[in-house]
Amino acid sequence: MEIKRKRTGEVLLVVKGSTLRGADLRGADLRSADLDHADLEGANLQGAQLVGASLKHAKLSGANLQSADLRVADLEGANLSNANLVAAQIYHARLFSAFLCHANLRGANLTYSNLREAALTGANLCGTDLRYADLHKATLPVKVIQISGMWWDVTIVQGYMRIGCQYHHVSVWDKFLDEEIKEMHCMALEFWQENKQWLVNLAKSTIE
Questions:
Q1: For residues 208 and 202, what is the distance between their CA atoms, to the nearest angstrom?
Q2: Which CATH class is domain 1-141?
Q3: Rounded to two decimals, what is the model's pTM?
């Protein structure tokens, strides 16, 4: 089976057999690949290069996408239920109406991704970076709080709080000394003294 580039038709990879289900595609270079409606259920795509790939309505249930690079990929309507997306790079990706139920997104980077109407019931979002992600009408497994308009944007998920580039569990944030906060940024201590109490309380409220 041939995997081709979306626009040019160039053959990127030839895979034995007539299906990609369960295929071993670890580290494969599939940038801009045409994988619309592809059956990749259970496939091993660990570390695969999928930048700009088109995966509209692809079947990726149970697939291993750990550390895969899915930047600006089009995953509209894709089924990623039970997929492993730990530490995957998915920022600026299109996940409109994608099915991510019970997917493992621990530590995944989803900044700026379009997750409108995506189904994320039961997904693991611990450590997931959702800064600037569009979650309009998305079905989320937990309370995700996004706060903008302050000196730094704040995202809180399951007790984990990201303030700017700093990301820690609320139990860690609560114990930081003033000297440690000050080392983070010249404005950090002033910001933290003004906002610590309510942000810590808010973060604690998201712990299940």
A1: 13
A2: mainly beta
A3: 0.75
Direct distance between the N- and C-terminal alpha carbons of the chain, in angstroms, rounded to an integer: 46
Domain ranges, ordered by start, for the chain: 1-141, 146-204
Query: At a CB cut-off of 8 Å and minimum separation 6, what does 100 contact?
Result: 80, 81, 83, 118, 119, 120, 123
Nearest to 48 by CA among 88, 17, 105, 99: 88
pLDDT single digits (tens) 64-91:
999 999 999 999 999 999 999 999 999 9
Q: Which of 97, 162, 93, 171 is nearest to 125 (CA)?
A: 162
SS3 172: helix
pLDDT tens-digit series, residues 158-183? 888 989 889 899 999 999 999 999 99
CA distances from 49 to 6, 12, 70, 190 (A): 14, 12, 7, 42
- Within 13 A of 150's CA, how many CA atoms are on the CB side? 17
Beta-carbon neighbour count of residue 53 at 10 Å?
Answer: 29
